[in-house]
């Protein structure tokens, strides 16, 4: 019965820039309002360390706390679990589920000048079924992720945010 307590969503896109460039644009949260046009997944986000200092997201460490105001779950806190050259991820809880969110940036199959960007979320817990294959929420979340990916691709490929 794990399909009732586990679900995952992954939305990939190829971006015509190296992973380091994609990462630089993606993790510059202060500039998101300048380029996110098609979606509004995250309205506000900032990261604090264990000593309550605010840090740039690109400098976040595993264990740092993120404060997120998102379309999906409103105002929540989450914990950074990975921040390296290839992946930025955080884990949060809301409404009876745990969400493990990640952005993965891999060199493209064709060459290192492209990036396979994956927008991912894994849900677990008693209400994770709400994001499963038959759920009406699933296409909505996939649509938000796809629109975010398109905005990120346009921002990176424009060269204005690099």
Please outline what is shown here.
The chain has 162 residues and is an alpha+beta fold. The chain contains 4 helices and 8 strands, in the order αβααβββββββα. 23% of the residues lie in helices and 40% in strands.
Walk me through the structure.
The structure is a single chain. The protein is built from 4 helices and 8 strands; from the N terminus they run H-E-H-H-E-E-E-E-E-E-E-H. By secondary structure, the chain is α+β, with helices and mostly antiparallel strands. An 8-stranded antiparallel beta sheet has the order 1-8-7-6-5-4-2-3. Helix 2 packs across helix 4. The model has no long low-confidence stretch (mean pLDDT 87).
The CATH H-level homologous superfamily of the domain at 2-38 and 85-158: START domain
Distance from first to last alpha carbon: 45 Å
Instruction: Indicate the proportion of strand residues.
Output: 35-45%
What is the residue-averaged pLDDT? Answer: 87
How many H/I helices? Answer: 4
Low-confidence parts: none
Strand order in the sheet with the most strands: 1-8-7-6-5-4-2-3
CATH architecture of the domain at 2-38 and 85-158: 2-Layer Sandwich
Q: And the CATH topology of the domain at 2-38 and 85-158?
A: Alpha-D-Glucose-1,6-Bisphosphate, Chain A, domain 4
Assign a percent range to the helix content. 10-25%
Please trace the helix and strand order, writing H or E for each element. HEHHEEEEEEEH
The helix-and-strand class reads alpha+beta
Q: Given the C-alpha coordinates, what overall shape results?
A: globular
Taking the sheet with the most strands, its summary is: 8 strands, antiparallel
Count of strand segments: 8
């Amino acid at each position: 019965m794990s399909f009732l307590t586990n679900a995952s969503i992954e939305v990939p896109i190829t971006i015509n820039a190296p992973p380091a460039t994609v990462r630089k644009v993606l993790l510059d949260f202060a500039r998101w309002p300048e380029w996110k046009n098609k979606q509004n997944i995250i309205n506000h986000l900032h990261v604090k360390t264990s000593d309550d200092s605010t840090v740039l997201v690109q400098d976040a460490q595993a264990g740092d706390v993120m404060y997120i105001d998102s379309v999906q779950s409103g105002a929540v806190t989450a914990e950074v679990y990975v921040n390296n050259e290839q992946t930025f991820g955080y884990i949060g809880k809301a409404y009876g589920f745990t969400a493990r969110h990640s952005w993965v940036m891999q060199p493209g199959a064709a060459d290192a000048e492209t990036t396979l960007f994956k927008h991912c979320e894994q849900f677990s817990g008693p209400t994770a079924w709400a994001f499963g294959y038959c759920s009406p929420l699933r296409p909505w979340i996939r649509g938000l992720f796809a629109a975010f990916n398109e905005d990120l691709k346009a921002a990176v490929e424009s060269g204005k945010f690099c």
